[in-house]
Every structure is written in structure tokens, then in C-alpha cells.
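thought: fold this chain, then report.
action: predict
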Amino acid sequence: MDKSERYDSDWRMIENLFRSYYSMLRSYAFRLVNDFCLAEDIVQDVFMSLWNNRNNIDFDSELKPYLFRAIYNKSLDYLKSKKTTLVGASTGLVVGL
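observation:
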């Protein structure tokens, strides 16, 4: 398999995962961050990370738990950064910008 064929194969695999799990993952992210647009961004970020790290991921294993954990972690990262920014704003300090 040459580089172009491998790229196409990887792209189809990620696209199939995206189509299969997007709605479920977006709903999960929304429950965590309570913001629909942000939930969409989180899911996109997770899939971009999946694409960028596709050579290091075992696609033969079950990916659903991996994807949900990635959404959870990305959502927590956002909530932590938001909390830091809000705490800084309430004290008069500019934090998290």
C-alpha cells in the first residue's frame, strides 16, 4: 500500500467513526459543558486529535471507550480553564487569557 492509499484508507476509517459516533459524542459533551456550540467544537477537536495521532492508535481495539474518555477529558479541560478565568475575573486579576 503506497502513502496515498494509506491516507485514503485512514481517512475513510476516521470518517466512518465520525459518522457513527458524532451525535452520541456531541450529546455527551453537551451534558458536560452545557453549551451546544462548544460541545460540537470539543467533538471536532477530539476527531482532529484522532486524525493527527492515527499512527499511534490501535484501530483494531474498541474505540468507543477511547472516544468517550477523550470527550470527557477535553470537556474537563475546558471547564477548568473557564473556572480559572472566572476566578481571576472576580479577583480583578486577568487569569487564563
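thought: worth noting. The chain is about 80% helix and 0% strand.
final: C-alpha cells above.
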